[in-house]
Specification:
The protein is an alpha+beta fold. It has a domain of 92 residues: Beta Barrel (OB fold (Dihydrolipoamide Acetyltransferase, E2P)). 13% of the residues lie in helices and 26% in strands. The protein contains one helix and ten strands, in the order αββββββββββ. The protein has a five-stranded mixed β-barrel. It has a three-stranded antiparallel beta sheet with strand order 6-7-8, with no helix packed on it. A two-stranded antiparallel ribbon has the order 9-10. A hairpin with a 5-residue loop joins strand 1 and strand 2. The longest helix is centred in the first third of the chain and has 24 residues. The radius of gyration is 28 Å and the shape is elongated. The protein starts with a helix and ends in a 20-residue tail after the last strand. The model has no long low-confidence stretch (mean pLDDT 81).
Length: 184
């Protein structure tokens, strides 16, 4: 009875081997070698299994967000139907540059940045506040367009400590000019 059982198991294994291979090939961990950002979906060259360098793998990103991952970024390669001929890349990111130490419920939008100091980081904090940290060697925050603030604005550096824009009296050679006039 055991010889018959073994023969049946071998037949089942042989019959299901192609299905097993396709299922095993459906989801693969991958490393980015290069990215072409000049197409509808980014075209990624990745390294998946040993010696395998799939190219022109489409990198699908969520609507409204886009980034170009650096070489050595890691992610997932999804092979539709288990076929390597039509793969897509998902969730490409550089683990060494990811902001760390976030609290539960916090979200960060970040760039790798060209300097050792890193790039821009926008942190939506668990307490509801937003922290924006420009990166680079000389961090500068630029706002193109108008800025409307409904709450108090306080400068903490460059103009004195704790200068509030609504309570600051502008000095002049002829004496204080008075507080800012709303709407001007």
């Amino acid at each position: 009875m055991s010889a018959l059982r073994e023969q049946m198991l071998k037949l089942v294994a042989k019959a299901t081997a192609p299905i097993k291979t396709r299922v095993n090939n459906m989801l693969v961990r991958t490393v980015v070698a290069a990215i072409n950002d000049d197409t509808g979906f980014q075209q990624v060259t990745t390294s998946a299994l040993a010696g395998e360098l799939p190219d022109q793998v489409e990198h699908m990103q969520p609507g409204g967000l886009s980034h170009v991952a650096l070489p050595t970024a890691e992610g997932l390669m999804v092979c539709i139907g288990g076929s390597r001929s039509h793969a897509i890349a998902l969730m490409l990111a550089n683990r060494s540059m990811r902001p760390k130490g976030l609290l539960p419920g916090e979200t960060a939008i970040w760039t790798a940045g060209p300097s050792p100091l890193g790039g821009l980081k926008i942190l939506c904090k668990a307490d509801g506040s937003i922290e924006v940290t420009p990166g680079g060697i000389t961090p500068v925050m630029k706002i193109a367009g108008d800025l409307e603030v409904t709450g108090e604005v306080t400068a903490k550096a460059g103009v004195g400590t704790g200068v509030g824009l609504s309570t600051h009296i502008t000095p002049s050679p002829m004496g204080p000019l008075g507080p800012p006039t709303p709407g001007t």
